[in-house]
Structures are given as structure tokens and as C-alpha cells.
Amino acid sequence: AQKVTQAQTEISVVEKEDVTLDCVYETRDTTYYLFWYKQPPSGELVFLIRRNSFDEQNEISGRYSWNFQKSTSSFNFTITASQVVDSAVYFCALSESTDSWGKLQFGAGTQVVVTP
Amino acid sequence: GAVVSQHPSWVICKSGTSVKIECRSLDFQATTMFWYRQFPKQSLMLMATSNEGSKATYEQGVEKDKFLINHASLTLSTLTVTSAHPEDSSFYICSALILQGTQETQYFGPGTRLLVL
Q1: I need a labelling partner for B58 at 20 to 30 A (CA). Which of A14, A27, A95, B35 fits?
Q2: How many Å apart are CA A56 and CA A50, to the nearest integer?
Q3: Interchain contact A62–B (C-beta under 8 A)
Q4: Is the pLDDT assigned to residue B35 strictly greater than 90?
Q5: What is the mean pLDDT of residues A29-33?
Q6: Residue B1 pLDDT class (50, 70, 90 cuts)
Q7: Mutate to test the interface with B, among A100, A105, A110, A113 (most CBs of B within 10 A)
Q8: Whole-number Å distance between alpha carbons of A68 and B9
């Protein structure tokens, strides 16, 4: 069963618009990690954030912000004032305590296209 | 700088040949490495977990005799695609779990694109 759901296949925005990527996860573990990665056309994964299940504080890093809500099992990601360089595929991933911490279960990814 | 490297970055081979992909952790020791596969326009799927000095643990549906994994040292894991066929064409990505202080951090390699003709 899919443990990480990214329902949005592709989002197209015009530069400077905000874009929010949804991520819903499923786990029975009380201890787990959630991640967001960016994959530009080159293919190399770029780490964006890791959040553990006990830390529900929202986080902001520059134009990026994350909203973690355990009540709805969601970990959404917002890019504020998008730029063309933000065009990439973004993956949400889950790592559960019952597995090795390095075993990531990825969502299907959301393609973000930012046009000038 | 990069923490995990992969070699080669891309490879084209004929059907039936074997291809070896190396994953190295640079300047750090990694007791555990992981191998993922990504088909075009799809997500990353974990293939196997590689532990130094022991046999790899394969995910369900991954043929261990076809995808040979060797983790002979704390800085090197290799994935050999044996008797490769066109359906094995994919983007193979490794990652290393590295202990830094008291925290484990995962680093991904840049990936290897395999095209089997």
C-alpha cells in the first residue's frame, strides 16, 4: 500500500506565484521521519528538510516553508515567490522506526513548472 | 562538496552484458548503504539495503541473483546488474547512512543512468 501520497502530479505557476505541494503519509509507528527532496533535471536529489514525528513546529527556510500536521498526517511544502530555478520534481518521503532510518519510502513526486 | 559519489555517471551496454556501478562515501564511513532505482517519470523505489561485511537485504520483487550487491568496505558498495536487458534501463541511485556525532544522516549519490540496448 502506498504510504506516501502526493496527489498532485504537476503544478504549473508563473514566476513569483506561491506554490504548495501536498504530502499525506500513512504509518503505524509513533516515531518516524518525514523528508522533502528536490530533483532537478540533472537527476541528483537535493535534500530540503527532515522532520521527526515529535516535532510539529512549522519551519521556514528562505522561500521554503513546511507545515507538519500529525492530526491529518500531512507534511505540506510551500515555495513562496517561485522562481524558474524552482522547476523540478519534488518528492516527499517517509522513514519509519521499524525499518532502518535510511530506508525511505518516496511519494510519486510532484513536477513543478515555473514559467517566467 | 559531495559526500557520496557514484561511478560511472552513465553507461550504455548491450543486452546480456553485466554492468557494475560503484557507490563511494567520501571522507566518511558508512556501515549502511542503500540502492534505489528510478524509472523515467516515476518515483524512487528501494531495491536493497547493503551492510558492510554482510549480505544485502533485498526488497520484495527484486531479484538478488540479478542485482548483485557487495559492500566490502565501509566506503564502497557495488551494484552489479547481471545479464542486463532493456527493461533494466533505469536511473540507479545509492545513498549512504553516515553517523555524524550522535545523528545519522543520509546522503544520496548523483545517480547512474543505465541504458541497455
Answers
A1: A27
A2: 12
A3: no
A4: yes
A5: 91
A6: low
A7: A100
A8: 35
Q: Which of B3, B91, B14, B117 is nearest to A43 (CA)?
A: B91
Q: Which residue of B has its CA nearest to A35?
A: B106
Does the pLDDT value for residue A43 go beyond 80?
A: yes
Rounded CA-CA distance A41/B1 in Å is: 20
| R_g of chain A, CA atoms, integer Å | 14
Q: How far is A66 from A55, CA to CA, in rounded Å?
A: 12
Q: Are B49 and A103 in contact (CB < 8 Å)? A: yes
Contacts of B66 (CB under 8 A, 6+ apart): B81, B82, B83, B88
Q: Which of A37, A42, A106 to mutate to test the interface with B (most CBs of B within 10 A)?
A: A106
Q: Could you give the angle at the alpha carbon of B23 between the alpha carbons of B104 and B48, nearest 5°? A: 70
Compute φ and ψ for A73, nearest 5 degrees: 50, 50
Q: Is B108 on the interface with A (CB under 8 A)?
A: yes
Residue-level length of chain B:
117
Asked if the Cβ–Cβ distance from A43 to B91 is below 8 Å, we say yes
pLDDT of residue B54: 83
Q: A84 by DSSP, 3-state: which?
A: helix
Q: Is B112 helix (H, G, I), strand (E, B) or coil?
A: strand
A79 neighbors A64 (Cβ within 8 angstroms):
yes
* A101/B contact by beta carbon, under 8 A: yes
